[in-house]
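Q: Got a minute? One more chain.
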Amino acid sequence: MGFWDNVKSSVNQMSDSLQNKVSQFKNADFANGAMAMCALVAAADGNIDPEERQKTAALIMANDMLKVFPATELKDKFDFYCDKLNKDFDFGKIEVIQAISKLKKKEDQARAVIQVGIIIGGSDGRFDPSEKKVIKEACNAVGINPADFDL
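A: Always. Here it is, folded:
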């Protein structure tokens, strides 16, 4: 099995696992952390072009594991974090990481948010080094070893 087949298989397994877990995590901190993670991965290269933003938003809306949240709420949160990152990437990144770090004492939720980031990062069949880097930073913010996710 090739490397990308392994990535796809791993992403599919994480997605199945998350669908079972997310219903347990229906709260504002988890929703904020998940949307902050999605925006961070979308902006991993330093900016979010409109096409990438739209594509990521479509993935969020189509994702079964996030359907426990109202779609408009997710969209508003995602847009908020994308706007912060587009306006000033460095300061926006601080705010995004802070939203994710609120899950530090909730390890199951923190792990689920990291998995959301990996799923978004690998959804196009590539898991770019810049995407891996920001997910590692998110892992560190919640006190999870990135090696737990083969990062």
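A: The two ends are 19 Å apart (CA to CA).
Q: Perfect, thanks.
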